[in-house]
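User: Can you predict the 3D structure for this chain?
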Amino acid sequence: MIEEPSTLLTEIRHLEEEVKLVHNEVMLPRWNGPFHGLVQTLYGYVMITFAHVDRASALWAGSDNAKGQTPRMLAFLNRYVSPNHEANSVAVQDWRHKLMHTARPRVLTDAAMGRTYHQLLHWWIHLPREQHYTFVEAPNRRILNIGLVYLIEDLRVGIERYLGDLAGSQDLQKKFDTVRGKFGSYAFLLILSGRGDR
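Assistant: Here is the predicted structure, written as structure tokens:
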């Protein structure tokens, strides 16, 4: 499959619609029950949202190389989604990288500043829009508020801005074309088992 510019927007819109559907029809009816908040589902949607950031940033930068992935994602977020570089840094490090490896977010430690970064993740309406992507201050720590639906909406608007730039820039079109075909397939590598595996 060859990536098309419109695919980015179509897929982020579908994600937004699906998350709102799950929020309204699955999560809210179970509020205060044994599946309160549907946390695992929420984490999965955050991971896929940051996968959309990764893909869009690769097409924008003209490289899908894993080396330099974090700076590339941050540059895309800073330019198209939010100028809040600190929030973008915390979000990418925790919700894209750490969540993928540990199945839960981690506390991020800034030893130079003597503080830690924590996260407060919401689905949507339980966090007022104006509090989304802002920090709550506490002694020696900063807590980043994120509303998933707001984040997806912000990313959709950012992708719309990027596509506007893409349509008017030969340089961006060249970068897009450099990466677009790589997302259709991936080379299979047979991984040799570790010691003790048969």
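The mean pLDDT is 89. The CA atoms of residues 11 and 52 lie 9 Å apart.
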